[in-house]
Every structure is written in C-alpha cells, then in structure tokens.
Amino acid sequence: MSSPNSEEQFISTTLSQLSLEEKVALLSGSSFVAASGVPRLGIPNPNLLDSVNGVKSPSFESTSTLCFPSTSCLGATWNPRLLERMGKTLAGQAVEKGVSVILGPAVNIHRDPRGGRNFECFSEDPLVTGKLAAALINGIQDRGDVAACPKHFVGNESETKRRFYGVEADSRTLREIYLAAFQYLLRESTPKALMTAYNKIDGVYCSESPIIKDILRDEWGFKGCVMSDWFGTRSQLPALYAGLDLEMPGPSVFRGTPLVEEVKHGRVNMEVIDERVQRVLSLIHKTADSRGIGRPPVPQSELSDLARLVASEGIVLLKNKDSTLPLDFNSNARIAVIGAAAKDPPIGGGGSARVAPQYLQMPLDCIISACTDPSLVSFSIGCKNNCTIPEVELQSTCAKNSQPGIDVEYFVYGSSRAVLEEYLPSTKTTMLGFLKPPLTQETFSHFTVSTTITPKSSGKHTLAIQATGAFEFFVGEEMALVDDMQPPPSVEDFLFVPEALERKCWVQMEAGKPYAVKAVVQPYVPAEETGEPRVYSAKLCFEEAYSKDDLSLEAINKAKSSDVAIIFAGRNAEMESEGFDLDSIKLPEDQEQIISDVARASKKTVLVLYGGNPIDVSTYEHLVDVILFAHFPGQEGSQAITDILTGKVCPNGRLATSWPVKLEDVPTFNNFPAKQRIDGSWEIQYAEGLGIGYRADGYTPRYPLGFGLSYTEFRCTDLQLSWIESEESLAVDLCLANTGKIDGHEVVQVYISERRAVVSRPKKELKAFSKCWIEAGKMERVRMVIDKRTAFSWWDNRTIGGGERWRAEPGDFEVQVGGLSQNFVLEEGFCWRGL
C-alpha cells in the first residue's frame, strides 16, 4: 500500500475518496481474522490475530509459532525490560506472518483464583498489570508497523456467562482496581487499539458503554481504535454513538448494509461515521509502515533463548525444605520422574490464546539429558490427567475405502438418501459458520459419521462422542448412546468446553477386532442468538481400559527405589481455559493422591506444578520437600524448569497473585462467579470492593503477592525517603545487598499505607517495584520514584465538592520495603480527574 507520508494526510485524502458503502465497510471486519481495507484504493485488509503468547497465522494452515509462557508467568517475572524485549520479538513474528494487530495483552485482574482466563492476565494488582502490559505494548509497537490491542475493557474477570452478566461494583472499586490497570498502561504506553469486553457495566454492554467516551476518550485522552471482542457488538446505533469504531469479526452483524440505509435515511449523522472511519484509518496507517521490510530474520537459537529466559524469570520456587534444590545431576542419585506432564507438558492454557508451538520439549527428556548417567532416571505416569476422553487415534480407524478416517453423509428434510457424501482422513467433522452445498439452514436435517475402531487390547473400553446437537450413537447395530442435548450447546462450548459436549459409554471389546461405530447428529440450534456463527460438529473419542491401581503402584515402587522423585502435576488447557471458570482450586483427586503416595514413598520429593491460577496444596504441602510453580511456561518451559532444578538458573520469579490456604479464604468466595437473578438476567457482585488479594483485611494467604524463594539471600538496608518538588514525586532510596554465594535477581517492592485515612483504605498497596540483578557479595543502591498521584490518591466517590475525582488529603503515610518502614507526611492534599 502506498500512502502519503503523514497520517493526517493519509486520513484526509482517503476519507475524501471513500463512498458511503466503503466507509461503513471499514467499520466492521472483512473476515474472522481481518478488518476491512479498501481494495479500490490499494488499502489491504489488516489481519488481527492472537496473542502475546504466540502470534497465530491468518491462514490457520500452518499455525505453529514461537510460543512464550502464559501471561500469568509474565506477571511473575516482574521485569518490564524483559517484557519489552519479548514484545519486540512478537512484532517480528507478526510481520513474518502478515499480522498487523496483536490482540493483547489481556489487562483484566486476577480477582478470584477460579477465573478461567486468569492465565492470560498478569496479576491481582493493577500496578503490576499496567506497568508490565505497557512494557509489552511498547515492545510490540517499537518497530512502527505492528499494533498492540490490550483487552478487555472492562470488568471481564470471570468467564461464566461473560456475554451476559452485568458487573455490580461501585465507582471507587472500578477506578482503583479494574480501570486502574488500563490507566497505568496508558500512562506508560500508547496502544494503537483497544478491545472492549463482552459484559455489562452499570447495566450497559461495554461495547456501547459511556465509559468509552467519558473515561477512555475524554478523561484519559485515548486516540486509538476501539474494537469489539469477537461477536461482542450487541447493537447498531448505541455502539456506534458510544464510540465503538470497529465491529469484529466480519462479515458484519450490526453494521454493513443496514447501517448504510440508516445514513441514507438521515437517521445517522455522517459526522459520526467519519469520526469512526478516521480511527480505523489511523490504525491502518500505523500498521502500514514499511520500516520492517528487509530486516534480517532472528536466528531460531535467539528466539528459543528468549523464550527460555522469560520462562526462567517467571517460574516461582514456593518451598525448598533443607535446600533440597538445586539437585546434583552429576551424582549417582537415582531419579524417579512421575506424572503424565513429564511427557506431555501443558505449556499454555486453553482458548483463543492457545498456540501450537514450534516444538515441544518433554521434561523427562531434559532431565535425562542433564544427567551424567541417564540410566539412573526412571519414569512412571502415575495417573492420567485428561478431563475428556481423548480423540480416537486415526490409525485405529478405517473408513469404507479402507483408509484411516471417517465417512460423513449429509441429509435434508424429506429425503432418506444423502445429498452429500464424503470421506475425511480425520476422526471429526466440523462446519463453523457455513454449510456445505447443497445444505441450507432451512433444509438441513442431520448428518452421520461412521467408521470402524480396532482396539489394541481386550477389555471394557470407553467410547465417546462430542457433538453439537442431539444425537444417536451406535456400536454395531446396538444403540449405545442417545442425547437430546438440552439445553443446546453454544459455540463457546464447542470452542472451549468439550466436557459440555461429551457423552460416553463403556463397551466390552476384543483386541484386533474392528467395531463399526456410527453417530447420527441433528443440526445445532442455539439457545439464544448472540450473532455468533452456528457450528455443526461431531468428534469420535476412544480410550482403552486401564487400571488406576496399577499406574499408581508402579509410580510408588519407582519412588521407593529412588533417591529423589520429581513429580510433574497441575492443570492443563482442559482445566484452565477461556469460556469457563474453575469450580475448585484443588487438583483432581487422582493427582492429589499420587502426589501424596509418591511423597510418602520417596526419600526426597520435588513437586513441579503447572497452571495459571493458585492451587490449594493443603493435602500434600507438608509431604513434599520442594514446590516449584512453572505456570504454563511455553515451548522452552521444560528446559527452563530443568535449569532451575540443576542450579543453572537461580530462581527469581515472584508471585504476582497471592495463593490462599483454601478457596473459602479468598475475599471473593461468595461473590464469584455470576449468578442468575429472578428476572433471568445475570450479574456478578464485586461486593468485596477494594479488598481483593493482599489488600483484603483479615486475609492471610499461604503465599503472598511478591513471594518467591531463591538460592541466594538478599538484605535491604538504609531506607531513605525524600520529596522531589520539581516532579511532585516521592523518591524511595535503599541499599540492596546479595549476602549469599550465588548471583541472582531480587524484586524490591514498595508498599504504602495511610495511617489515619479520611476514608477506609486497604491495609497496604503496592506503589512501585524494581527487579535488580546483584552479584554474590555485592551491594547496589536502588532508587524508585513514585509520582504523588500513584503514591497517595484514592477515588473519592462521595460526590462532594465538585463530583467524583481522585483525591489525597494531607496525612501520615507509612512506606514499607521488605522488613523496613518509614513514615512520610504529605503536607498538602490535592485532587484531579485526568490521566
């Protein structure tokens, strides 16, 4: 695309050349992954793809990509400089794939440890969230031809009924916690786009909420493009007038031809259309810069090293009894590696952020490679971790043409003969948003999926089907399953919650004998229309019989004969995903049992946990010697874990979200997730107000915000406070010494509390942090400067003295850094409203 040098020239010239139809077309997507361009003027359709953990391909044909750790792991790095470097690498990946806008980072808050999408977000704290998000955004946008799109503005802290619930929260809670995260990132970065949330605020969907204009635009001065989440636009004119520039995805549900007609009949002001179009054109211009062309590709080794470094800095050592770690893999110690995750590590959570990695390392392989004598390493699965029955292995199936796969037949009403037959070299069939000709919504009656399955062993095996409509399932001539699928599953169930679709049965089968299976599936009919495409799908699943007791006994015996057992456990993408929230923060019972049994049998036990959310470790915490929290660590996670186990890397991750002792302890326990009201609407109460995580009075977590052990020791001394008059800021100075024998990182955290507050305030609040590298035996002087708004203000929603605003009264404040504290007197108060 050729364009004038300045953005202003490009917008004014292009706007003058556009027809009404072209202008309206720019206000919605052209496809599922692209906004709209103007082909007549040589303006291409910009591609908008997930995510900050790995950039997907617009074609979906080759989706493998450099896979970084989940965002919760990024939060645990506490390292803005590292995340800015990561952002620059993501931008390079985006350019290689033809992606203009990276949809992320997610800036919602870890409000409750059951939040299904918490792994995509940074922290329970808005300052940590905002500063790290800003660093990532600055990195992504550094080269000038890629945009970041932080999301979801605002209040999407839960996945249960996320498209329908209304957030019930007072303005102070929204301002100081949930809006604050976005406000912090906008102070330190200038994202070129921003995505609205699905939910409602004050009874109005975010895509048409006054907060777009009143807060984001007018108060904070955001000038970028505001787009909806996918199918998150819920109206035509309210969203348009509220300030939603871009409806995604395409083709349009609410704009397009109907909006053209509204303009032609004078019901929509052309100035509003032009204003929205200018925002979209600005985004197109900002991502059409050619400065990235001709840059040499980054060597794969450098990409891998960075992914490993990010994982290493986010992995948190939670327990290390008697300095069990680091392990000496050069000794003659016998090592038992236990757990399915040792061979199939969960490197990312589920949903739209999930990406296929360039490669997958196995922890077992990395441990074997690190050992001088690999024969000393043994493995046992212990227990299976899958929540649903696995998809049947393709090679175990046989279609009518004697090839592995399935036969699919499609039928219309009034005909007993199929109107379309096909063979698929797969074990599933899907039509998402389309029907294969000659099928239509009015005529499509049902489809069948058939094949044969040949088991490798004899036993009572499990057969299952995941279908998006009512079905009958046959094994041979016998009906094995029938389900009317009421209420009907949703597109989100199909995409994110396979358990909602799965129905299973148990069939006695003989090894080597083929069994004919057939599913008859009716079309999907949504329970309520949200503008999403309809989906028609069926997947065949199969699992051969096995003995849980045998798996457990094998693991216990290997642990008994070892010097150390390393257990890999935790959650995977089936357990933490977009589309649903967790019911519990405990691990599945089978995992808890095998951890306990192995720990009792082993001389030393190292537990490596995966997941994006806190885990209740009460059952086995006292039994294991080490707990290492790996998060979802990306494609280099297995090597990063091994580096920490062996001492090659000194652990330096710090929790960005506190871990409760048990779920019932969390301040949000009774306010999460959304609940249905008598009138049928859904709401989620934020009744705990400001008291989430470490801010809550009376809440004593097992592991607090900022917690993380190291192989070395640090000491803070000589805390000094001073006021910088010219900057209206508080300077915090201290000495940080590494008193141990190993070089390492420490995260210095500054908390401030008001000793005699005018209104109720949290017991303490994080106001600054700095990650520092200190060599063993050395000392560094650390300075952090905190502007007065960040340090002292609170949102005054008492509507006195001129309305709601940020305010600070003169008063006595306590500044805490580690075990040190000093008082600071703010002599003059202030109030303000802007950014």
From TrEMBL:
Protein keywords: Carbohydrate metabolism, Glycoprotein, Glycosidase, Hydrolase, Polysaccharide degradation
Top-level enzyme category: hydrolase
For whether the record's keyword set contains Hydrolase, the answer is yes
Pathway the protein takes part in: Glycan metabolism; cellulose degradation
User: According to the lineage, what is the superkingdom?
Assistant: Eukaryota
Q: Does the keyword Transit peptide apply?
A: no
Catalytic reactions on record: Hydrolysis of terminal, non-reducing beta-D-glucosyl residues with release of beta-D-glucose
Mind telling me which Pfam families this protein's record contains?
Answer: Fn3-like (PF14310), Glyco_hydro_3 (PF00933), Glyco_hydro_3_C (PF01915), PA14 (PF07691)
Against SUPFAM superfamilies, the record matches this protein to: (Trans)glycosidases, Anthrax protective antigen, Beta-D-glucan exohydrolase, C-terminal domain
Per UniProt, residues of the PA14 domain are 401-560
Q: What is its EC number?
A: 3.2.1.21
Q: Which SMART domains match?
A: Fn3_like
Q: Which GO terms describe its molecular function?
A: beta-glucosidase activity
Please, one GO biological process term? cellulose catabolic process
Q: Which family does it belong to?
A: Belongs to the glycosyl hydrolase 3 family.
Return the protein name: beta-glucosidase
Q: What is the lineage of its organism?
A: Eukaryota, Fungi, Dikarya, Ascomycota, Pezizomycotina
